[in-house]
Structure formats: structure tokens, C-alpha cells
Amino acid sequence: MQLNKLFALLGLAATAFAAQAQVVKIDGSSTVFPITEGVAEDFQKVKKGAVKVTVGISGTGGGFKKFCRGETDISNASRPILAKEMADCKAAGVEYYELPVAFDALTVVINPRNPFLKQITVEELKKIWEPAAQGKVTRWNQVNPAWPDAPIKLFGAGADSGTFDYFTEAINGKSKASRGDFTASEDDNVLVQGVSSDINAIGYFGYAYYAENQGKLKALPIVNPKGQAVAPSEAAVLAGTYEPLSRPIFIYVNAKSLGKPEVKEFVEYMMKNAAKIAKEVKYVPLPAKAYTGGLEHLNKGKKGTVFGGKNEVGITIEELLARETAL
User: Signal peptide: which range, if any (predicted)?
Assistant: First the structure.
């Protein structure tokens, strides 16, 4: 009986300890997830279990919905916050810091057994993905007569995804303008599975998911405005030649949440370690001054966004840093 009492007391103590564990709540972009998750794992080890970091993947749009309701401390975003989301945050009294964490080469992928696609133009991608293509452009030879009379199987980001917003803006000229008859998901692993299992498939998502699955996928070189076919890579992003699918990725931090020591410590830890983790998961780290600049914004209370509520295509690392410095 005494032993049972002891076990019961130990159970209560464990429950009490778990309840005391401080929690940092993060949600949003699946593109940013590999960086944030990597940082979270290291941070939790450093804190020896005293802080728990939860990281969801409801997409950039889904993440901002929660963030602007005050439900999360940090929102992962693969595009800047939009005017409607800014208004929602303002209405709920949520102020925020915008912190770029890396650059991504949004990657168009095909099945490695595909025998005919060596590169693709923005115009060809538009023919495939524009709203007018729905139910009409269903075979490869309809896009380019040199390609075979075979069905196109499409896999892409879900409507709550910042990747969906960025891709449609860059390729179709308008954010969220897309055909709807494709397999969509905010979980990039679902898209990896779809493309890797169908020889006629094409899809798109963040570079980290391609890098992790290179044995199952082939990245398509994109013909840039200068007529060069450029494959996604760190070198191409740094050189500014992987256009128009290079983009900055961010975390947004609730200003009120920064008053909690665990959130402040996590964000500082992320700014000091994001470059290392970004490189590990195959994104392009920003220059060191971008991360120190982010910490300065926190210390000086420089809240808000440098993008004015719009998603932008084609911004370079240098332009991003210049804007962030001027905030």
C-alpha cells in the first residue's frame, strides 16, 4: 500500500512539473518548419526540458489566422504578412516583429523517371497552372507540342500556404490565382509522395523538401528573365539568378509574448542559430548582419513589416537587408 502511495505521489509530482514547463507556441508555414523545428529541438535540449516548443504546420495563412487571434507566440511565414492579416492583428491588439530567417529557392519538381523535361519556362508553368487551364490543359503536349501526349498530374501547395501565394504571384501574376483541379496540401511531404510515385507528375514546394528527397525527385531548372536555365541552389540564390522563385522566409513574433522569458530566450536563440540550422536543412542562410539586425529590432522595439501588406516577387537578399535596416 505504501508503495502504491509513493507511485501516486510521484505521478502527481510529474504532472505538476509538466504543468510548470513553459510553452512556446509556433504555427504556420511548412516551408519554414524545418528551420524552426531544428532550432526548437536544440533549444529544448539546452533548457533541459524546462521549456516545451510546439511547432504546427497549418500554412502561412492558417498560421497568421491563429497568430492574429493571439493564440500563438510565433508565426512561421513563407511570405510577408498581408494587409488583411495586418488589419486582423491590429483589431485584436496584436503587435509583432518581422524577422527574416533565410532565403528559399521555391522548387518545381518532377518524377526522376520523366524522360522529356530538361527545363521549363515561366510561360510554360503559367500554361499549366493558370486558372484558365482548369479542366482544359490536361496533357503535356498541350503545353509544348514537343512534349508527349501524356496526362499531366499536378501537385501543389494548399490555399492556406504562403508557397501557394508566392508561386501564383510569380507564375500567374496574381496571388491565389490558380487552377483548382490539382492535389493540394499544406503538408509538403504529401506532395513529395505524389510526385515521386507518378512519372507524369509535376509539383512545387520549398527547397528543403526537395533536398531531403533528392533520390525520389528531380528539380527542374527554371528559365530566368535573362534566358538562362537555372537549377535551384544556394549559389544561384546568392547570385540572384534563380528568378523568379527565390524568396525570403520569416518568423513573426507577438510583441506581448516577448514579455515571457521563454519566448524571448527562444527568439534570441533562433536569431543566433538560424544560419547554422538553415544551412543544415538546405536553405540559404542570410548574412550575419541580418540576424544581429533582427535582435536589434527586438531590443529597440522596432515593430511592424517592411513590405506594406503586399507579397513581392523577386526581392534580393541585398534589397531585403536594406529595407530591414531602414525600419
Answer: 1-21
> From edge to edge, which strands make up the β-sheet containing 229-230?
120-121, 222-223, 229-230
Instruction: Work out the burial of residue 311: count CB atoms within 10 Å of its CB; fewer than 13 is exposed, 13-18 middle, 19 or more buried.
Output: buried
Structural domains present in the chain: 16-103+248-326 (3.40.190.10), 107-239 (3.40.190.10)
Cα 77 to Cα 316: distance, rounded to the nearest angstrom: 17
Longest dimension (CA), the chain: 82
Give helix 261-280 / helix 33-46 axis angle, nearest 10°.
120
**C-alpha grid cell, residue 68:** 492574429
Q: Which residues contact 74 (CB under 8 A, 6 or more apart)?
A: 24, 25, 26, 28, 36, 67, 251, 252, 253, 254, 257, 263, 266, 267
Q: Is the pTM for the entire model greater than 0.85?
A: yes
CA 230 distance to own-chain centroid:
21
Burial class (CB in 10 A: 0-12, 13-18, 19+), 117: middle
- Sort strands 222-223 and 229-230 into parallel, antiparallel or unpaired: antiparallel
22-28 and 51-55 beta bridge pairing? parallel
Residue in 211, 119, 130, 111 with CA at minimum distance from that of residue 170: 130
Q: Tell me, what DSSP letter sits at residue 1?
A: -
- Kind of pairing, strands 74-77 and 246-254? antiparallel
Confidence of residue 11 (pLDDT cuts 50, 70, 90): low
Question: Which positions ≥6 away from 113 have C-beta within 8 Å?
Answer: 199
CA dist list (Å): 22 to 12, 15, 36, 302: 18, 13, 17, 26
Give the separation between CA 298 and CA 177, rounded to whole angstroms: 35
Residues in the chain: 327
* Per-residue pLDDT reduced to its tens digit, 152-200: 999 999 999 999 999 999 999 999 999 999 999 989 999 999 999 999 9
313, exposed or middle or buried, with CB in 10 Å at 0-12, 13-18, 19+? Answer: middle
